Amino acid sequence: MLASYDQPHSRQPGWSDHFYLAHDEQMAARGKPFFLGVHLERDMKARLVRAAVREEAMPVLAEAWLIARGADPDRLREQVRRSEFDAADAETEAAQDLLRHSGTRFDVHDSASSQGAPRVTWVIATDSEAPDPDRPVAVFVGHRQADSETFTLRIGHFATVEDAYTWTRTPSAPLPQPSRPGAARADAARLDRRPSAPRGPVGLGDQPAHTPAASPRRPRER
């Protein structure tokens, strides 16, 4: 368990919210999304429980889902920080902050993680607020070496999902960035205006090339 905390329900008196962020070892061993966001809503008096679960390939995306469902970002961050690896650089911190507060901005199509070390994870998603409208597809790439307690996270931008898949098969290529002038600054400005209250490239190296499924996979919510 990476994070666990409770808070009073913000919309229904007498109910409480319970937020959990967990790591599923069995899913990880099969190369599947292995971070789980779990949201329980409880009415202890009536003995009722509502549950929702989200599977994500990166913990920061599970955080974003929980925050969008009402989790306090600061309390959640305090919990997760105790059990996660540290960001290797400022670029990683900025990418994490962007994803953590993205809400429903990114619609995930697919993801994959390499087995063993180094651990490399990529996620392909459509960006509804893409800084460059000609490149509405984002790829998030996380990389952690076996002998390091830090990790890097990078974001690239592509014109199509097919182009993003092609990059995952040729990971030595640079991650494309927004080409529209000022796009990156506009994206950063949107991040700076978010409410404070709740509401080089890396690749798979010698890992086998990914073959996309016939239809894109979306994170499962159950």
Please characterize this protein's 3D structure:
The protein is an alpha+beta fold. It is 24% helix and 31% strand. The protein contains 6 helices and 9 strands. It has helices at 25-29, 59-68, 73-81, 90-100, 161-169, 183-192, and strands at residues 3-8, 15-23, 35-43, 48-56, 86-87, 106-113, 119-127, 137-144, 150-158. The chain has a 5-stranded mixed β-sheet. The chain has a 4-stranded antiparallel β-sheet with strand order 1-2-3-4. The longest helix is centred in the middle third of the chain and has 11 residues, at 90-100. The radius of gyration is 18 Å and the shape is globular. Mean pLDDT is 79; it is low at 194-216.
Record keyword descriptors for this entry.
single chain; 222 residues; globular; alpha+beta
Chain-wise SSE layout:
Blueprint: E1 3-8, E2 15-23, H1 25-29, E3 35-43, E4 48-56, H2 59-68, H3 73-81, E5 86-87, H4 90-100, E6 106-113, E7 119-127, E8 137-144, E9 150-158, H5 161-169, H6 183-192
Parallel strand pairs: 5-9
Antiparallel strand pairs: 1-2, 2-3, 3-4, 6-7, 7-8, 8-9
